[in-house]
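Q: A reviewer asked whether we had any structural model of the full assembly, not just the individual parts. We don't, so I'm hoping you can provide one. Inputs are below.
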Amino acid sequence: MLFHSFAFLVFFPVVVAAYFALPPRSRWAWLLAASYFFYGWWRVEYLALILFSTLVDYAVGLQLGKTTSPRARRAWLGVSIAVNLGLLGTFKYFNFLNANVEALCTWIGLPYGVPMLDVLLPVGISFYTFQSISYTVDVYRGHRPPERHLGIFALYVSFFPQLVAGPIERSTTLLPQFRETHRFTYDNLVKGLRLMLWGYFIKVAVADRLGLYVDTVYGDVHQYEGVTMLIATYFFAFQILGDFAGYSYIAIGAARIMGYSLMENFRRPYYADSVQQFWREWHISLGAWFRDYLYIPIGGSKSGTWRTYRNLMLVFFVSGLWHGAAWTVILFGVMQGLFVLGEKMLRPWTARFSDATGLDRLPWLHNLVRVAVTFHLVLITWVLFRASSMADALTVFRSTVTGLFTTDHLFVPTGDVTAFLINIALIAFVMAVQYVQGDREAGVFLNSLTRPARWALYLMLLFGILAFGEFGERAFIYFQF
Amino acid sequence: MTAPQTLRIVLFAVLVLAINAGLTRAYFHAETPSSWTLATDAQLRARESFDLEWLILGDSHAKCGIEPRLLPNAFNLSTLGSHYYHSYYRLKHFLEQEGGSAAFVVLPMDTHSVAWQRKRMEDGAYWSQYIDYPQMAWRTGDFAGYARQYLTDYWLPYAGHGDRIVEAGLGWSDTTTRFPLLDGHIQMPGDWSSTPHAERIALTEQRCAFIHDDYTLPDPVTLRYLRDTLALCAAHGIRVVMVRFPLTEEAWEVIHEHMELDQLDALYDELFAPYPDLVRIDLGHALGERLALFNDPDHLNEEGAQVFTRMLLERLDEAGLIARGNAS
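A: Here is a predicted structure for the entire assembly that you could use as a starting point for your response.
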């Protein structure tokens, strides 16, 4: 079920009303049923996978609680990781791997006949498997005891607000909340609704509108060039921000209304002054997951400079792989890693350059340059992320550069100038709000406004969604991960 | 919840409703100049009397095909992309809410008239004045779809159309592509004969598949609305004239590949049997070879409408429904 579908507009109030009407001890069952209904709305068959993953990790958790032998504990953890990554590997990566092996065999002249799997990628599988893995690792590390209530554990894996596109929660913070008694409060309602409103605005009125332009241009990369191509890539940068951050805000807001706190997932990544900072503000829960469950276990930054670089590259490679089973997306991750490494390695030279050019003495200009450079480095990787193939990505790069001053077809993807200008205005509005937001969380920022300013913003967002929204119920991009 | 919190919610809701009303007005103001449906209603309301002799209903075939000024005291209330259910609700409103009357109602009897085409529920803001959404939901079984449709059509007609409001507000609205609308009839300017043959055939195939809903017809809900329309006319003492509108022969060839016309006509026989005074006029092939009279495979152009309406007049004369001298 999509958050911006009519079905969800009916589903959510019903779930919330019944949730608070039920006695606290049975609420978990209602939320679990609602979560499975929410997930099964796409395809009921998907539920089998989530149930399987839940049962395995529940059992592993119990075994880890009983076993003291380090070897047995490692083995049980291995079972959990193997099962979850096995699910991911089968449904997400098998066909990609198979196609590449087939291409390689064809190239060297070997016979190859392994058929492709005729399965659809289950929505959100990368999110809930990671969340589930984090539980077994936390139990293995002794950060929390095993969850003995199967229903509550199942709810942890499938909690509908964050089930299909995060934030990827930790067992240490989310599981205890299912045992708390949550009361309906005006404060939670208002704070949750305002986050949902902001999320809906950047998803429906910004991301989905921009998506129309982006899809037209990236759907036929040979037809467009120069400024049109560049604009489409700029638009995609804001489309994916609105799409993914929008989902996260709606998820956090929806959970908040029911009294649950989910972790912040986005801040204002396009104001980041380095690629490393960008990743601290973009998909924060995934970055934190990789830090705690991959980067630190393989040594982090404590084993010397080159090992740190190796560890970073490994994390970014896996991050690219997590984002999709395609060479373009893997390269996306690798390039992000190289940029982060580049920043670290070039730091002495960039500092010297700032000093020599006098940029240091103009902090606002210095910051502006850093933000602009960071944004454009990220933009290069967005081309890889969005392009359908490596060939398309190369075409985008080539035709953007060779026809840089060509404005042919600029308004074709929107149909007219007005729609194009409204797209620009919406982006400017989002950036202006985030500028004022500063380093605060979106919820904290919204809370800090005076009532007239808040109400004005609410009305702008509400009617912005209604008037400029794209109501084709376009799926969230991150669902495919 | 405390009293001040409740008050805040009420105040906010009032503000939302006020802005919503303002945006709705702005939308209609922006949309009317370029909306055939809204402009047709405006022309109808500008008439001195709603007591008509001839009322033409139907979709774009009727809208472009019948020149009402050639008929006595006639108005073309057809709407683009409409269907029997639209015609039924519009006629019902005309007769029962607007106090109108008509001696004769013209309805289409085309090959695609019994298709469903849910996707045709366009111009929702216009149709929200006339359509009975609960009834539509009940009849189609699509409760969620019509609940959503009601919400957007009735309460949020401007939803997704903010660009139009901005354009109108800035004076950027482009109304230069409008064709003349006279007593509800659109004069189409095109000449289909000037389109190259290969392109004509490709477009004809596309167009035929579209209007026939990929040939998934007849649809029972559509048939039910046709029956209701006939019953409504009978209840108001209105005689019904069912007309098959001309298509190019190229279009007929495509249709014959997918449909058995005899079966369709047998269905119409059954539907019309309870109404012995109903008149059927089949002019489907009347102009098929004269491509210069068409705007596209299934719409007559301005000259075609003149020629077709005169042919229709002859047939009405033969049926004793009109004296040629009465035509204006």
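A: Points you may want to mention in the reply: Chain B has 13 helices and nine strands. The mean pLDDT of chain B is 89.
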